[in-house]
Structures are given as C-alpha cells and as structure tokens.
Design goal:
Four copies of one chain form a homotetramer. By secondary structure, the first copy, chain A, is α/β, with parallel strands linked by helices. The first copy, chain A, has two domains: 2-78, ACT domain (Alpha-Beta Plaits), CATH 3.30.70; 83-275, 3-Layer(aba) Sandwich (Rossmann fold), CATH 3.40.50.170. Chain A is built from eight helices and 13 strands. In chain A, β8, α6 and β9 (181-188) form a beta-alpha-beta unit. In chain A, α1 (15-25) runs antiparallel to α2, α3 packs parallel to α8 and α7 (197-203) crosses α8. The longest helix of chain A is centred in the C-terminal third of the chain and has 24 residues, at 239-262. The radius of gyration of chain A is 20 Å and the shape is globular. Chains in contact: A-B, A-C, A-D, B-C, B-D, C-D. At the A-B interface, β10, β11 and β13 of A face β10, β11 and β13 of B.
Amino acid sequence: MELILTLQCKDQPGIVNAVTSAILKCNGNITENQQFTDPQSQIFVMRTRFETDETETTCHQILARDLTRFDSALTLRGADRKKKALVLVTKEDHCLRELLYLHDLGELPIEIPAVMSNHDDLRAVAEGHEIRFDSFPDLGKSEQEILISAAIEKYEIDFVILARYMQILSQEFCESMAGNIINIHHSFLPGFKGAKPYHQAHARGVKIIGATAHFVTGDLDEGPIIEQDVAPVNHSKGPDALVAIGRDIERRVLAKAVQLFAEDRIFLVGNRTIIFS
Amino acid sequence: MELILTLQCKDQPGIVNAVTSAILKCNGNITENQQFTDPQSQIFVMRTRFETDETETTCHQILARDLTRFDSALTLRGADRKKKALVLVTKEDHCLRELLYLHDLGELPIEIPAVMSNHDDLRAVAEGHEIRFDSFPDLGKSEQEILISAAIEKYEIDFVILARYMQILSQEFCESMAGNIINIHHSFLPGFKGAKPYHQAHARGVKIIGATAHFVTGDLDEGPIIEQDVAPVNHSKGPDALVAIGRDIERRVLAKAVQLFAEDRIFLVGNRTIIFS
Amino acid sequence: MELILTLQCKDQPGIVNAVTSAILKCNGNITENQQFTDPQSQIFVMRTRFETDETETTCHQILARDLTRFDSALTLRGADRKKKALVLVTKEDHCLRELLYLHDLGELPIEIPAVMSNHDDLRAVAEGHEIRFDSFPDLGKSEQEILISAAIEKYEIDFVILARYMQILSQEFCESMAGNIINIHHSFLPGFKGAKPYHQAHARGVKIIGATAHFVTGDLDEGPIIEQDVAPVNHSKGPDALVAIGRDIERRVLAKAVQLFAEDRIFLVGNRTIIFS
Amino acid sequence: MELILTLQCKDQPGIVNAVTSAILKCNGNITENQQFTDPQSQIFVMRTRFETDETETTCHQILARDLTRFDSALTLRGADRKKKALVLVTKEDHCLRELLYLHDLGELPIEIPAVMSNHDDLRAVAEGHEIRFDSFPDLGKSEQEILISAAIEKYEIDFVILARYMQILSQEFCESMAGNIINIHHSFLPGFKGAKPYHQAHARGVKIIGATAHFVTGDLDEGPIIEQDVAPVNHSKGPDALVAIGRDIERRVLAKAVQLFAEDRIFLVGNRTIIFS
C-alpha cells in the first residue's frame, strides 16, 4: 500500500528527521519526497510518498502523535484513493470536454460524481460520458449555492472545478471551500482589465496569449496561481481566432492544475503556491 | 543588387498588380513577398524583396510614379544598406551586451554609430566593442534630449534602441521619432502595475514571466507590441532569481525586435504591428 | 464568395503580376496572399484568398487560361467547401478523439465521411460523434487497401489521416495518394531507432520529447515534415509517463497538421514542405 | 555558513532519517532538500543545503561517520566555494562568449582559471574578459591532452566545459574525468546522422531544431543528457539561418547545464541524469 503525506508548518530544526523517523516506525519505505522552505515566510512544506504494510489509520496515529509538537497541517491519503471533484460549468464546453476526455483515458486520477450548471446546454456532453448532470437554470444565486453545497455534502466532494463557470460565487461559499476551488482564466502579457480582453489584446497586437489556473478567493481572478501556459500568436489572428487559441490553452492549463491538485502536489503559502511537479 | 520595398495604404483593388507590374518595369525579379490586409482597419501592407540591375534611384522613380494613385507610404532600400541605430542605456548592461555581441557576430544587420547614456557605467562595455560612447551624467532631461537629437542628426540615425534606458523621453521627442524608437519591458501574466513588479509577481506565485519589446509612444510601456517571449518559473525562484531570468528574456526579445526592424519587417497599423517574420 | 488559389511552379518573372491581373479580371479582391521562392530549388509557391462575385468555374477558366504559360500546378477552391478526410485508426484513441472533438467544436474545417480501422475497438468513439465507422479486422492487408480505396472513391475523399494507424500501407497505395496522406509519429532529440523508443529515450534521460506530423511516402516515418511540437520532461517521468505525455503532443500536432492541410496552407517542394501558417 | 550535501546510494530504509539526524548533530538547519529514488535502478539520490555554525570539516566528519553504513557517494561543499572550470574551445565563439558574459554578470557561480584551445582564434575574446588563454595549435592530440591534464592539475580544475571544442578526446582522458566533462551538441527531431546535419534537417523541412548538453563518455555525442532546448523554424530559414539559430540555442543550453553542474544539481545514474532544478 502506498500513502501520500503532506505537511506544512513554520520551519524549525528537526522536522524532516521527525517525519522520517515516524515513517520508519510505520515500517514505511519512502519512494518519493520533496520539501521546500520558503525563504520569505519561513514556511516549510513537504510531500512524501511511502510504501507500508501498516494500515492508513495506524500510520496516521503514529504520524499525528510524533509530529504534534511542530503544530503542522498534516494530511495522509492512500495513493489510490481518488479525490472527488464537483465540476461547475455554464455554456462553454471546451474545459469540461478536456476533463472528461482525460478522465476516460485514466490520465486524471479523480472521481467526478456530478457536473452542475446554471444552464442546461452541456447535459449531453456530461451524460455522454456517463456523468450525472444537474442544472438549475431558473434559480437565484443563493439558491444555486444551496444546491451546490448540498451536492458537496452528499457526494463527499473534495474540491470544486470551475470549468468556465460564469457565475461569481459568494464570499461565504469561497471561504467554506478555501483552497479547494480551482478556476481557469485567460491571461495576457501585459494584462488587460475590463470587458472583451481578447479584443483589447488584439488591439495592441499582442504576440503571446495565455491562461492561468488559480485557486478562488473572494476576488474571482486574483487567487494564488497554480499553473500557466501560453501560445504565440500574430497579426493574422483576429479576435475570434485569439478566442479559439485561448480556449485551447485554457483546457490544457485547467487539466494540468487539476492533476497537480489530485496528486497533492500543491501547497498554499499566503497568496502563493508551492508546487512539487 | 537586391532592394526591399515596403508599402502601406488603404486596401483597394489592383495594388499588388500595380506593384508587381512596376517591379517588372524595373527588370526586377521578386525573391520574397508578403502582404496582408488587416480586416479591422482595411489597411493593406506589403513587403517585397527583388533583384534588379537597375539603380535604386531608377527603381524608386518608377515605383513612386506607378503607385502614386494608391496614396501609399512607400519605402525602398538596398538590402545591404544597414539601418543606423542609436543605443541609449543607463546602468544595466545585459541588453547592450546582447546587441553588441550579435552585432559582432554579424547576426544583427545594423550599424551602431554610438551608444549614449545618462550614466558613465557602461563606457567600458561599449568601447570594448569599439563603439563610441557618449555620456551626459550631469545634464537635465531637456539638455540630454538636445544632445540625443544632435547625435541623431549627426550620425543620420534611423532608429533609437532603448536598451534599458531608465529615463522617460519627452512627448516631443517621442513624436519626432514616432515608430522609430524601440523599448524593452518586462511582462507578466497577469500584469502588475506599480513598483517592484518582480516582487509582486513572486507574491502571487506566477509560473511564467516574460518580456515585451514595443514601439515607444508617449506612454512609456504602452506602445504597439513588436515581440514577446516568456520563460517558466517556479516557487524556488525568489524575486532576485526572477529578475535574473527576466534579464535573460529581455535581451533576447529586444534583439529579436531590433532584427525585425532592421529588416523592414514591421508595419504599424494604428496601435498594432503587422510583422512579416 | 471567397476563393482560395494555390499555385506552384518554377520561379520566373511576371508570375505574381499575371496572377493578380487574372484575379482583377475575375473582379476579385485579394484578402490574403502569401508567396515564397525557395532559394534551393527555385520553386515558386503562392496562396491567395480573394473575394469575388463571379462563379468558381468562371474564375477557374480565367486563371487557367492566363497562367497556362507558367506551367504551374494550380488549384482553386471555394473557401467554404470543406475537404473530405478519411480517418484510419487502430486501437489508440487519443488522436481520433482530438480530431472529433475539434470537428464538433467547428475548429477543424473538414468533413469526415468515415473512420476505418483494422480493429473494432474505436467503434463507440466514432459513432458517439455520429461518424460512420467501418472495420475490417479479419482481412489481409491487400484486401484492407481495396476497401480503403473503395471508400476513398465512394466518399470522394480528399485526404487520408493516419490517426495512429498501425498498418504499413503499400507502396502503390502511398503513391496513389501521394501528398494526401498525413501521419503522426513520436519524435525525440536525438532520435532513437528501433523498438520501444520511449524506453530508449528514458534510458538516456532525455529532457524533451516531441511529435512530428508528416506526409507519408513509401517509408512510413520519413516523409516531408508538416508540423512538430515538443514538451519538456524530467527524471521523474518513467517510460509510461513519457508515453502519456507523447500522446498529448501527438494529438495536438496531428490536429494542427490537418488544419494546415484543410486550409491549403501546405506546399510540397521535393522532400520539404513550405507552410503558410 | 551554508553547505551543500549530495548523496547517492542504493535505496534502503532510514537514509533520509540518518542524513537529517546527522545534520542535526551539525547544528544544521535545512534550507533546501530534494531527493529521488529511481524506480528502475533503485538508486537513491539526495541534495540538501543547510546552514550551520560548525566548520565544513566538522560537518564532513559527522556525516561521513554516521552515513558510512549506506555505502554512499557523499559530497559536501561550502555553498560559496565555486567550482573551477577549464573551458576548451576551437574557433567558434558563441558558447565561450555566453559563458564569459554570464560569468561577468555574476550569474554563473564558477571560476574559470583558463581557456584552452587547439587554435589561436579566440584569444582576444578570453583575454578581453581577463581570462588566461592557452593555445596549442601545433601539437598532436596526445600532446594536447598532456597540456590539458597538466592545467587540470595546476588549476585544481573541477570540471571541463567543451564550448564547441572540435577535437575528440581520448578514451583515457574521458575516463579520467568521467562525469566531469560537459559538451554541447546540436539536436534535431528526428535525429540526423552524418555530415552537415543542418543541411539534412533543412532538406526534410524540419520545424524544430534544438541543442543538447551532455556529459562526455567515450562516444562524443552519446553521453547522459543534462539539458535540452529547442526553437521553432520554418521554410524561410535556409541552412545558414538554421546554423545561426542553432548557435543561439547551443549557447543557452550549455550555460544552463554549466549552472546546474556548478550548483551540484546533477546526479548520474547509469546513462541518465537526475536533475534537481
């Protein structure tokens, strides 16, 4: 059996030694290990994968007891226990299709108990992949969030993927799922504020466009960045072509971010992520 | 002898035919040709390289006469007549070194009659490459521009390269050299306004940083974009490391933009560039 | 109505002038034009898109007549008349899924009358997208090619896409469709010959893997290159992970090559392609 | 004081625990740590940077004693003690210039006691950067290697950089410096054997060219890969342009590989590298 341990705490002497000692007590053999101390915040983060014949419960008891003095955020998870994602969508299908495609291929180690939407447009896409689809086209925002929260509870959802979900979530909802909501957003060098960003980008003749996957905080497009990628463009691409290229980058970047999250590779330190890729 | 023709005008039927007919009258053989009609502005641009035994003067007369009805901006230049660049620098040397290095290698088809600076720090770099270096550390901004303008006249400068020149040029100066001043600037996804951008980028944990070469308009960092490039970064890079990576991108992007300009490959249409790379 | 003209011939004076004169006679207005003379072979290629109120037949007559003296390969096609592709697959689905996904999105301007396969595995994928699927699992190679050739005739196929088709086509078949069969193949720096290339690449610790889309000649993996792309990898990726990353590159590169072909942007000059992207 | 520890051995339980325990005995505080177990070879590698008030000698004694049972290859080095590189060149200057440029900037943490060459061409480049230049244009290969070996001893050289050194080193020399000679080589997808590779690449119309930095084994271009990068090209680039682009990639890739080596980030496992970047 393989377990994935993550740990985050104030940096202090002896942490790694204590972790590895505790894993030895679990009869564990470390197969992967990454750690990093952030020089700015002096926060220490660590991700360790180890094999053991002990149960997850036993290991958790040993680790929690031996590491208690470090006052750390500790997680332990069986490597084959997949995280459960709730995917929220509106009308655009490119991100949803990419997630379902990679999920079908077995390259995205998550479970998707349901797709939910404030529109009915993507029902056929979800159901074509045999994923449950719930829509709430006629509800107000707060009623929508009640349904979403109920689904999170019912399906024991670990994280929410905003796969081009065009509703702004309430501050309360964001806080209740803090660090567990992933959004995808177009990005440009330089950035463009306001409406029709691809038209603005075109008007300045940008040569590179991109996309950013990030955690959602109150401010929809300003949370900690998880993953980014770009593509070169040129003058022959009108605003519509830029939008199409943007779609292509968005779906790849979102899928990559989901994969990192699914494998416990992302740590949040203040407004930054530390990623063991 | 090879000539490079550029032409820009309102799109209208018969332009290409008129140009190619005129080149035939010059006994010219087209070796390279690119043209583009911008769908937004209906501006037509064209770059044609052709061989001929006629003189540049003869060809210019034929072309100007035959194309007069299109009310076009027309340029004609011997392919081996290098454009003359005035390079302005302050204290950072990475862009200047890159330009001089590529110039020495013969990969940057420009002449550099002089490097000018508001500081004396980079004298050795320029003179080590046997390029004249003039500094004006003690002068006020308007006096500096008088010297720069005098040098532009004296050396018959075609364009100005701001190779990390940390002075803001006056509106008047920018307008007098409109479309002929190239600047280099760091860029991020998303953009960051204000001081210490690399620190801001670090604080959000950006995963990609970049640089933008652009023409200078009144607003120093907002002119039409010529060239952009990016590099991936991660959490292990502190602000200083980001600055170092940024320097590396800046020098490559600036050199590329200068090369495009030197070869008459850039057309300005409104606030956008059309680039035949 | 918009027409796309392509032309390829020995370089000689007056071609562009003759083309643009002929387009004027068609009352055509050029909206896009690219041309290139290959210095090695002295072959001239040109792609021109123009609007006209004349019929395609009328335009073709005018162009064919006026350009006959250049002894050129000339094509003319309505921009909205989609090319018809026959997709051949075996068992791997990643390339087929990508093509069908982009086709559904409207981003791949082709028609796909049928998918054919030497296995039955991908029937559900094709039919799920409402594309006809014909398989021939029990036939010998020459009988397979008879069926494929019959389908090419029946559906008026313009080109064949080998979307991970693991059969070697006969020399005769390749020649009968020369320049109209596109294949996708993994690629490495440096290249690796023989079986299990991803394992070989892993054994040398390669840091970049890629894929190449190319035209098929007799030699399956050696035809003229259309499109290539790469992705960075590192030591943490075992052979299986390399294979997964390779799949991701392959599907993107193949889709890009198909798009270039669908838009008449590829010219074959000897064993090289000239691509107006 | 900061120390960098590297360790490589057969994977076995308790290594990390033993290392971190020993570092605690050194009153060390770990600031950076990376480790990896290669699943194929079951080789464990680790790089740890730690602060301590103890001397390097004391720390080395503690670590060597406590880790002796793991039969590991152990190195310990003060983080500010720069490795000494001997740079070998022939006539091409692009790689040498890049190394000296980054060295001047302080971005390449190495010392360069000397540049040596079988030609005299690059004397001015080296001496312009105040680096000693020794040439041996008239000597046979074995006499050259005697001089090189003498310089390695005299200057206490840690590693050799072949910055476009066009001589094949003897098997004996390569073995005497095994794992400590870095070479740079052009690379293509697919690979091309034999003379004039850029011409071959051009003849197949490759769309991406690259470079590979690798350790030198007996076979000059086949050692373990350290770093690779690529650049897109198109049909408009003739063989000479490809060579120029290749030069640009080569200098960046070589500099990156040297930097990784200088910071003890490269581990050799069989014919592969594990790199903690």
